[in-house]
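ugh ok fine here u go
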Amino acid sequence: MDQQIQNSDFSNYSLDRGDIQSVSKTFIANVFMWMFGALTISTVFAFLFSQNLTLLSYLVGPTGLSPLGYFVMFAPIGFVLLMSFGYQRLSSPLMAFLFLTYAAINGISFSFILLAYTASSVFSCFASAAVMFGIMAVMGYTTNKDLTSFGRILIMGLIGILVAFIINFFLKSSGLNYLISIIGVAVFTGLTAYDVQKLKRIAEGTQFEGVGAESVKKTSIMGALTLYLDFINLFLMILRLFGRRR
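structure:
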């Protein structure tokens, strides 16, 4: 996904520093607008399905998850892969539709989390994730330090987390689960700063003159997807550590 964002078709038109900063701020604002919109949709759908037994019955049957329930659990992975690998071929309206649909389905799957944890702990963990995300986003946008090498280490840590998740699926170790969550908080906190800086540099090193609104919008949506995933995973890791189950 990072490679696809970086390889967007941008021109070499020269702008002065003031124009570049203006373009950067506008681009980042659009990225966060898409991200916050997606988070709002996820939150609304999670609340609706967790509070409405009729809607919840479509996901869970007498013997466990329904076919729709399985679809809701695994479809988000397909949406992310489709948007990532289809970036060059998909239109911006279709990308926007896929992103918002993905956010809605993700929200439905989060309804299980709201049922498993107390409302107060979900809220406190969400608020904590929001504060940490906000601080790191500001740091990533304002720092002059190049976070590229730091980002490579974090991506290696992310791969390690995925491997550990798979191993612990069979081991079912509570200690390993706790360690994964601690490392996960550190990794996704750091990735937030790295991804925001990466998006800022895309905007600053990209002159949008001569580039269609289509390409700019698609890049904004992919950037929003990246930050959305950073925030959601940070929230889930904090919830695994501090959330109180019902």
